Amino acid sequence: MSETAISRSFPDRRSVLKQISLGIGALTLAGRPASAAEEGEVKIGLLAPITGPLAPYGDALKKGMECAVNLINADGGFGGRKVSFVLADDQTDPKAAATQARKLLIEDRVDLLMGTTSSATTLAVIPQAEAAKKPFFYVVEGEEKTCNKSGGTRPLIFGNGETPEQKMDKFVPYMLRCGRHLYRSCRHRWGGTREADWRIRLA
After folding, report:
1. If I label 64, which of 16, 124, 184, 202 is the partner at 20 to 30 A Cα–Cα?
2. At residue 159, does pLDDT exceed 60?
3. What is the separation of C-alpha 148 from the centre of its chain, rounded to a whole number of angstroms?
4. pLDDT grade, residue 21 (50/70/90)?
């Protein structure tokens, strides 16, 4: 696999801007009046681990959001509206993530939530967003968090990470081309809604 092919699997500036635009567009789908947007501004609540074991990822999220917001505003904003964001530290801790999400939604009156870098914090934030009837875009992988236990979908919850199937579609052909011997067994329960059991043998 070439360096170019590998680099394409990581988010670039265009994909970051697209995700923020989709998040802002989801305000319309939410079927509720916007708060800051009604006054001419779209406010995003960003949950990121500024402290804790995943702090380096939190710093990357913060810098990515700063860059994207600056680019969107320099291009005239979203539909003429200025975009801003409020940063909250989820500490890579579910309890802190839930508390900070409520603060962003109730006190800061953000129009949508984005961020989180672990399944635990993501799952802790989802009920807060749904209770407030505001969209939430999470960046960790795994599509199951957009589904509920009955098999339906959560209309306000969006994931922009790769699904396990999408990863395997890329990696299996690559490993076959390399001709290496590999045995991998992964048994993992994602969010209590789905279980995968992969066993791959390449000769």
Report:
1. 124
2. yes
3. 17
4. low
What CATH code is assigned to 3-159? 3.40.50.2300
Say whether pTM exceeds 0.85. no
Only one residue has tokens 């390449």, namely 202
**Hey, where are the domains in the chain?**
3-159, 164-202
Residue among 99, 100, 79, 88 at smallest CA distance from 48? 88
- Residue 40 binned pLDDT confidence (cut-offs 50, 70, 90): confident
Query: What is the mean predicted confidence (pLDDT) over 174-179?
Result: 74
Q: Which DSSP string do the residues of 119-169 spell out, in sequence order?
A: HHHHHHHHHHHHHHT--EEE-SS-GGGGB-TTS-B-TTEEE-SPPHHHHHH
CA separation for the pair 50, 96 (Å, rounded): 12
